[in-house]
Design goal:
With 420 residues, the chain is α+β, with helices and mostly antiparallel strands. The chain has helices at 11-27, 59-76, 79-84, 99-105, 148-155, 170-175, and strands at residues 35-36, 88-89, 123-126, 143-146, 186-192, 201-207, 221-228, 234-242, 258-264, 268-277, 284-293, 302-303, 307-311, 319-320, 325-326, 331-339, 351-358, 364-372, 381-388, 396-406, 409-419. The strands form six sheets. Strands 12, 13, 14, 16 and 19 form a five-stranded antiparallel β-sheet that branches.
Length: 420
């Protein structure tokens, strides 16, 4: 038998529900929608056509109708951009010229995260982001739904183990939008010139100390590293298995336990992602960090990233460290390499290395200057070690800034550290 037409919901209701679902999905995402009209500049009138059956008296009526329809279509192109902060490109015969601006404005972005508070069941949360600047429009995700599992874990932390999620692989952690913070990780990246003018390299040191807490040794840790370029493409990877053994009783771990690796990369901007997994417990943590690799071969002056070395006393040997918190009784120095165009053949210019330690107000509390002459360079490279007098600094946060200058070329690096 035929179905009663009154039992059908109707296309208008289905369309409205689908539109509402789409708007809700956009409100919970970070998607930006742009509309580009490929029609270009349009002449709206029956009189502009090569032939028309219209009589002279009806031209104005049809032109008004077509104009209204055309404007309505253009307005529809702005619905999604207006909701997501995108652009609407209309009335131009060269819409492709706006594409570079669209990509440019998304080159820099910020990710803000928060930890959900206690909730029962699925809890929708509204989001509101405000900025203290005039003339700025902010588009943000308007709502987030807290899954029931997460909400339950927030209300009953005792019942939620360290791994309350499905087992995760190293690759899963490397592909995530945000780092996986199951265990605390710290990383130090140092871009250096390649050996014998080969491709530059990034020395990676990740602190695996958190995976040793309560142990004297661990099973072999699975380490995964990827380098992403400015377009998010994977350009280099590294995989290794590392076994870290610490002597002494449990609870007497050293300040940091570095696991080292290395990636060869061309000059440019990258994001380095590192993930560490304990195969016995299934725990996975990851950390992401940006890095810029200079053109050590062509640049008239460039410097490597700063590596911090520390020792417990003046007589003890210095060792590279990832940590950035030090006691006033410790000894600390910053090491870096200075390059004057590894592929150039002009004369070596004297290089001045200026070190400044700045307090939170920007005041210099320690300054030091070092001059490197031609005899200090070997194959257009020079090593530089600068001591930081921790015993002369009061407890607090500091910025270590190193500026290099040779002839008209300059280069700078900066790191933060704390004295306890």
């Amino acid at each position: 038998p035929l179905r009663d037409p009154k039992a059908d919901v109707g296309c208008d209701r289905l369309l409205r529900d689908a539109r509402t679902k789409m708007f809700d999905a956009l409100a919970q995402s970070s998607l930006t929608v742009h509309s580009l009209d490929p029609n270009g500049v349009v002449s709206v009138s029956p009189a502009t056509r090569a032939s028309s059956p219209l009589r002279a008296g009806s031209v104005a009526q049809f032109q008004a109708q077509e104009t209204n329809d055309f404007l309505a279509n253009q307005e529809s192109l702005g619905i999604l951009p207006d909701r997501t902060g995108g652009r609407r490109v209309i009335n131009t015969n060269a819409p492709e010229e706006k594409v570079p601006d669209i990509f440019k404005e998304t080159e820099t972005y910020y990710v803000l995260a928060y930890e959900p508070g206690p909730a029962k069941g699925t809890a929708p949360r509204s989001l509101d982001v405000k900025v203290a600047r005039k003339g700025v429009l902010v588009y943000t995700q308007r709502r987030v739904d807290v899954p029931g599992a997460v909400a339950a874990a927030a209300t009953n932390t005792a019942a939620a183990p360290a791994l309350a999620v499905a087992p995760m692989t190293v690759d899963d952690a490397l592909r995530g939008l945000l780092p996986q913070a199951t265990r605390l990780l710290a990383v130090n990246l140092a871009a250096v010139a390649g050996i014998d003018d080969a491709r530059p390299a990034v020395n990676v040191r990740v602190d695996a100390r958190s995976f040793l807490e309560g142990r004297t040794s661990t099973p072999p840790l699975q380490i995964g590293i990827v380098a992403l370029d400015a377009f998010g493409h994977t350009v280099a990877t590294a995989r290794q298995t590392s076994t870290v053994t610490v002597s002494g009783a449990a609870g007497t771990l050293p300040a940091d336990v570095p696991v080292e690796s290395r990636l060869e990369l061309a000059p440019g901007d990258y994001e380095i992602r590192i993930a560490v997994r304990n195969p016995e417990s299934g725990e996975v943590s990851s950390v992401f960090a940006p890095i810029t690799i200079p053109s050590f071969v062509n640049a008239p002056l460039s410097i490597s990233d700063v590596v911090v070395e520390a020792s417990s006393s003046a007589s003890a040997a210095m060792h590279p460290t990832i940590r950035r918190a030090f006691k006033a009784s410790e000894h600390m120095q910053a090491t870096l390499h200075v390059y004057e165009g590894l592929g150039r053949d002009d004369d070596i210019a004297p290089a001045t290395i200026a070190l400044r330690v700045l307090d939170p107000s920007g005041r210099a509390v320690h300054e030091q200057t070092l001059t490197l002459n031609a005899q200090d360079f070997a194959r257009r490279r020079a090593d530089c070690r600068l001591a930081i007098p921790l015993d002369r600094l009061s407890a607090g946060e500091y910025l270590l800034k190193i500026d290099a200058a040779a002839d008209k070329a300059t280069a700078s690096k900066a790191i933060r550290f704390r004295v306890e």
